[in-house]
Amino acid sequence: MLFTDLGLSESILRAISEEGYTSPTPIQEKSIPAVLKGGDLLAAAQTGTGKTAGFTLPILQRLSTTAKAGGKRQLRVLILTPTRELAAQVQESVVTYGKYTGLKSTVIFGGVGANPQIKAIAAGLDILVATPGRLLDLMSQNCVSLANIEILVLDEADRMLDMGFLPDLQRIIDLIPAQRQTLLFSATFSPEIKKLAQSYLRTPVTVEVARQNAAADTVKQVVHMVAASDKQRAIVKVLEARTLAGLSRQCIIFTNSRLGCAKLSRALERDGIKAGAIHGDKSQGERTLTLDAFKSGAIEALVAT
Which of these, 82, 79, 86, lies nearest to 35 by C-alpha position? Predict the structure, then answer.
């Protein structure tokens, strides 16, 4: 199947083509037609399967073919994500694929000043990408109205529940018109996700493109059993082995604490590995700079909570 077979407009297909894509991924192939029909969707897809385009493309299509005539733009789509970084990625997708549609969007999240976000909302939007905390903050200041939302997306809903956002989600969803399209994306269909879907989705189409709790087919999994005191040395050995094999040693290393994250990053630097840390004590500006350095290859090891 090709993207041209999915009923998308020429303006959207042009943007897709410019990104070098011709065929949809399995989650896109299944979710795009379902979203275009206007019904609710419950989708299980791992990160990296193309799920973001799986909802941004049909949303852009629906909005561009049902544009409101005259007057100030009304906020019609709300996309909620668990983290600042994911919110920024989703907004990037909306901008990339919607650049020829004339639709306007912005992203809001904490850790940065609210004034530019407030101004962007006040100027009029079609699509808002947000983290729950910052959205509630701006709603409490009467800066955001959800009265005209037609489509609600809960992206990585399982992570939002894990991070304790359920009360915030309930407060937000209760302020959105009941007559709406709701799209819920999760890595798995856990009991908690099924309960959330039963509460807020109406006879949804269910799409699942990966086995429950399974890694993507492109991931090779290896376990090294080492003592806690040997972990840092083991990481260095693994990276050195990749260098000897002529492979990239760029990697992401997860730690269970902010202190451990900072300490490991400094230790790797001492061992000659270009490293950068991302954790909750870092400002959003610092986190963004570190991520950009990792994307460009200036950082080899991204250490993160």
Answer: 79
